[in-house]
Amino acid sequence: MTPEELRADLTHSGLNLIGQALSIFDADLRLAVSNRQYQAMFDLPDALVQPGTSFEDTIRHIVHRGEYGPQDDPEAAVASRVEQARTFQPHYFERQRANGKWIAVEGAPLSQGGWITVYTDITDIKQQEALLRARSEELSEQVLDHAERLAAANRELAATNAALQEAQRVLTRTEARTRQVTEMVPAHIAHLDTDYRYTFSNRQQPMVFPGSIGNVIGNTVAEALGAQTFATLRPWIDRALAGESQVFEMTHKPSGRRIRIALTPDRVGKGAYVLSTDVSAEVQAREALSHASKRSLAAQLTSGMAHDFGNLLTIILGLQGRLAAMPLPTGAAEDVQATLAAARRGAALLERLSKISGGREVSLQPVELPPLLREVVALARPSLGDGVTLGVSVDLPEKPLLLDSGALQDSLLNLILNADAAMAGPGHIALTASTSGEWIEITVTDTGPGFSDEALTRATEPFFSTKKGQGSGLGLSMVYDQTKLIGGTMRLDNTAGGARVTLRLPHRPVTRQMVLLVEDDNTIRTDIRSQLTGLGHAVIEAASLSEAKAMTDLPGLTMILSDIQLGDGLGLELATDRLPVVLMTSVPPGDPLRNDAPGPVLTKPFTTSRLAAALAEASKEPV
């Protein structure tokens, strides 16, 4: 006997121990379960107590046998009872059978459709009530009637309570399933009352708003998200509480994430429903697409003329260089030098155009940021105008971070020189740097006139400039692109005393690793070892899987970097719970070997930046 058959047999045996008759019909009005008392009470043939028997056949048998008394139209009586059964409503009633016995019929619907019915023989109770009436003529007829009605009401109440308990069980299970589903949604779903207090939450708020509390029920929005965020949200919430649906986006300043929020008025109760979603990746993709189209335009404008323009500049520089070497009158010599300077500026502009229209590879390297910022200040100060001062304030640990140092240095110099040009006279430029949660925040502020409304909207567009013919309009666009390329953000705004540009870069601290490098090709292993040591990591080498397995328990080892396909096996076998593993391979994406990898997979050949990013991702501790 199978386990399923054993469980069914035990269940049937248990039902047979119940004193009452019991039957369960499913949503299709077919018998699912019954006990022996059910067959005995109604004297049913074996064919009508088999699972799958239709309710209609059972009722037809009982009606034609006279169970419900004489019927003018038996088939109409059958159809009527079948139609009542299809409503699946709780019911309780008492009836006298054709054989003179009384039964109480108690039915309750099931959550998946169908119903369960219990039949109780109450003949003895009815006889006692009749005996009491016969022997108590001195009692008031009204008292007897009340007693009988009370007994019947108590039995009906018991049946109703059973139905309510079943309904409560179904409701509790449904609520649990609903909560489970909402907690799986990658968004925060909540309900607010008119006092801005949470009455429901799927506990996903910290995922959308990093740093907020998890269980917000009973807290106000200000308590859960902070006063600053609440001040931003309040006007929108007030309109939703007034009956207007709202959909908007906001930047969560503590984390820098872009959040889309939908507020729906509660039409039944009071308050509003809230759906908050992190759309940072979507916004970045949207902005990247917009800038890509503008860079494409730049490429179209420059690709046709770059070659010819470059040749012309080369000729001009050559001719003017020869003239400069000749003895010329003072005025002519100055003109030649001015022509040379203009031609060199044209060559530099052409180079910048090619950079913005072409692709660029990120070059992440371990960088100590405070010395880099001090070097930027030292490079920029000689180029500043008269009366312009440049200050630096750094609140960062003296620890290496993964950054594209060249791109960051170019960006900061660009911002400082832009600020100097905007002030057009004496003033002060401040360069500050600090950490803010998962970000490094670098700001450049000046005491100039600030950004115009148009500049705040269009400053990152290629070729947009407010310098009236003096600028190329590529500076801020290049800063924006370089920042986005490493996963950062750039924000322009005005302060009480001037303009401010804020760069937010991912905070990627460099953890010095002791890496077990497993690669069976000597040349490739040498190149990757150089990349690892260049990133500051210690390296232990293995040329085969068997050699690597003997080294995985070395003291101080913190990470494994292995090729997937080795001469004597697969690098996948090195994956353990103790050490993070980064795998590398030359097989293309989609190959089954890559699908079995437990973590990041590097495609050969790879740059040092991609290697650094993969090691940083693998070394993160689980949240």
TrEMBL record:
Pfam families noted in UniProt: HATPase_c (PF02518), PAS_4 (PF08448), PAS_7 (PF12860)
InterPro entries in the record: CheY-like_superfamily, HATPase_C_sf, HATPase_dom, His_kinase_dom, PAS-like_dom_sf, PAS_4, Sig_transdc_His_kin-like_C, Sig_transdc_resp-reg_receiver
Enzyme kind, highest EC tier: transferase
Residues with 4-aspartylphosphate modification: D563
Identification of the protein by name: histidine kinase
Coiled coil feature spans: 122-177
EC number annotated for this UniProt entry: 2.7.13.3
Residue span, Response regulatory domain: 514-619
SUPFAM superfamilies the record matches: ATPase domain of HSP90 chaperone/DNA topoisomerase II/histidine kinase, CheY-like, PYP-like sensor domain (PAS domain)
GO aspect biological process, one term: phosphorelay signal transduction system
Keyword Transport: no
Molecular functions per Gene Ontology: protein histidine kinase activity
Key words, A-Z: Coiled coil, Phosphoprotein
Catalytic function, reaction form: ATP + protein L-histidine = ADP + protein N-phospho-L-histidine
Domain Histidine kinase, chain residue ranges per copy: 304-509
